[in-house]
Amino acid sequence: MRNCILLFCLILIVPTTAAAKIKTTEDLVSDMQKKYAKSWYRTATFVQKTTDYDKDGNKKVSTCLKFDLSILREDTWQGRPAYVVGAKQGDLHSAQFWIDQKNLYFVRMLRPAGKDGAQTQETQFNKYQRLGGGWMAPEVIFKVDGQVRTTEEYSEMRANPALDARLFDPQYWTRVHWRE
Fold first, then answer.
1. Cα four-point dihedral sign 2, 83, 138, 178
2. Which of 10, 70, 93, 96 pairs with 141 at a CA distance of 20 to 30 A?
3. Cβ-based neighbours of 49, under 8 Å, separated by 6 or more
């Protein structure tokens, strides 16, 4: 699930310039791409510390998320203006993602969770720091119905490190490492 979310976030935040007023989801994604197209890092590495808080000990299986891209509104997140894609005002349960209006990076995602979809899972990307020509959130918090279940902390973040090509070849995965 975490890998799926991080990949989704990178796809959304890679590259923009907010010249005109954003009115549609297409405008938002286009501006995000334009803002960072020439400056965003191509690769990044970090050390991840994950702390799980699953009180019943069950494993969760992640699924692909679907967002209603026809819904775009403005809101505030952690005191900053944000775009919200996928849910109308007051709906904090439907699948939705939040984008910081100034820097156009992914800050929050909510979606139905649990066997019957009655719970709400929230993922927050916090404490953004400049990294290369882009941004990275060194803190990611996963909540279910408002309770923290998992936290991730990233350190030793580096943009565009030289990576051994064998890192991407499965036959070397147990022998080659990116970290010195």
1. positive
2. 70
3. 152, 153, 154, 155
3-state secondary structure 55-73: CCCCCCCCCCCCCCCCCEE
Q: Is 165 helix (H, G, I), strand (E, B) or coil?
A: helix
Count of C-beta atoms within a 10 Å radius of residue 109? 23
- Asked if residue 83 lies in contact with residue 99, where contact means CB atoms within 8 angstroms, the answer is yes
Integer Cα distance of 172 and 147 in angstroms: 39
- Between CA 124 and CA 137 the distance in angstroms is 9
Cα separation, 73 vs 114, in Å, equals: 26
Angle between helices 25-36 and 2-13 (to 10 degrees): 80
What span, in angstroms and rounded, lies between the C-alpha atoms of 99 and 75?
10
Low-confidence ranges of the chain (pLDDT < 50): 1-18, 59-63
The amino acid sitting at 27 is D
Place of tokens 């690769």: 43
Which distant-in-sequence residues (6+ apart) come within 8 Å of 138 by Cβ?
46, 127, 129, 153, 154, 155, 157
pLDDT score recorded for residue 179: 73
